[in-house]
Design goal:
373 residues; alpha+beta; 8 helices; globular; Phospholipid scramblase
Length: 373
């Protein structure tokens, strides 16, 4: 047994100096400390170490004899500490599975999202995983170089060629007709296993039930770690809707819907200057193309078909924002293998924030029709 081994190891310490301590092989361990290794490290206090060194320093009895000064309580404590160390090691092996990924150890936890993973450095003190922000797929040192602190704030999310925005299923709305706050996940198509950001609506519960699609709300756009990057604000509307993009409390752009009997027309502004227009023919056309004053393509928003069940019974829509790139050298990482939209010029980071606001407005204006009884 382990405590017997520890007892024999202690009994062999007979060649120590008066105030020195040695191990089982005769190596000096220290003057005032006595480490005893029985499948772990067990350290005594300064006083107990001196007492043991004095007891065994002048001892000349046989190695197999039992020291009468060695109490039974000490052996019990030694055995208990050894059992605790073994149990803790078994629990760690059972809870943590180590894998190899690029030379770095990776801890596998219950996935918050499909395929997501976290590294050992991101584990909190409570043992909860934190998601890791995927790297941008477009360089921010060239045409997308931030021109203001506001653009530098949104660059980790918007410096990408393509974004996939997916709305969560609202079960209370589906089963009971209770209108819930909208939730979206933003995914970079180059890194589909880890979300690049999230969108969360904040609105009054009574306003959601009474006003439905015309309700006012504020939606926070965050990165994968939960840091807020910018907001979109949508006030109450009666005939035509508007949605504002705000970065760090500063309004940077707005999207105004223009009334038409069947066409879906939107005007996009950066400050007081219009930079794009959307003229969708309506009906079953789900492609919304952003064009400049000359009719050249700047970006594109597609509403994807998710399946018959999703489209008929839920509001869980999915939107693809294609920003494209006119500079092939700006591609980084996995984006080099993806065919991008051909655009006349890349949108700035502030203009891309307005385009995300447009996608949220489209979802609320035309594709959220299943609320109520």
């Amino acid at each position: 047994m382990n405590w017997v081994k520890g007892f024999r190891c202690l009994c062999k310490i007979t060649k120590a100096a008066e105030f020195g301590v040695t191990d089982c092989q005769g190596n000096a361990l220290g003057k005032f400390r006595l480490p005893v290794s029985v499948e772990g490290n067990f350290l005594w206090s300064k006083q107990s170490a001196m007492a043991v060194s004095r007891q065994f320093g002048s001892s000349s009895r046989n190695e197999n004899e039992v020291d009468p000064h060695l109490s039974r309580d000490f052996l019990v404590q030694l055995w208990i500490s050894d059992k605790k160390m073994k149990n803790s090691r078994r629990k760690k092996k059972r809870m943590i599975k180590y894998g190899s990924h690029g030379g770095q150890s990776k801890l596998q936890y219950p996935r918050l999202f499909s395929g997501s993973s976290v590294t050992e450095d991101n584990i909190l003190n409570e043992g909860k995983p934190s998601l890791k922000q995927p790297p941008p797929t477009q360089s921010v040192s060239g045409l997308l170089k931030p021109e203001s602190p506001e653009e530098a704030l949104v660059a980790p999310l918007l410096a990408r060629s393509n974004l996939l925005i997916t709305r969560d299923i609202e079960w209370a709305n589906l089963v009971l007709g209770f209108e819930q706050e909208n939730r979206y996940a933003i995914v970079d198509v180059c890194y589909p296993q880890s979300p690049a950001g999230f969108i969360r609506e904040q609105s009054n519960v009574l306003a959601r039930q009474l006003l439905r699609l015309r309700r006012p709300f504020v939606a926070s756009i965050t990165d994968a770690t939960g840091n807020e990057l910018f907001r979109v604000r949508r006030p109450f509307w009666w005939i035509t809707s508007s949605i504002y993009a705000e970065i760090d409390g500063k309004e940077v752009g707005v999207v105004h819907r223009r009334w038409h009997l069947w066409r879906r027309v939107y005007d996009l502004y950066l400050g007081n200057k219009q930079f794009a227009v959307v003229e969708n023919p309506g009906f079953w056309n789900w492609t919304f193309t952003l064009k400049d004053i000359d009719g050249q393509v700047l970006a594109e928003i597609d509403r994807d078909w998710r399946g018959f069940g999703f489209e008929i019974f839920t509001d869980a829509g999915q939107y693809v924002i294609r920003f494209g790139s006119s500079d092939p050298t700006s591609k980084t990482g996995l984006a080099e293998a993806i065919q991008e939209l051909d655009v006349i010029r890349p949108l700035t980071l502030s203009e891309r924030a307005v385009a995300v606001a447009l996608a949220i407005s489209l979802d609320n204006d035309y594709f959220s029709r299943h609320g109520g009884w």
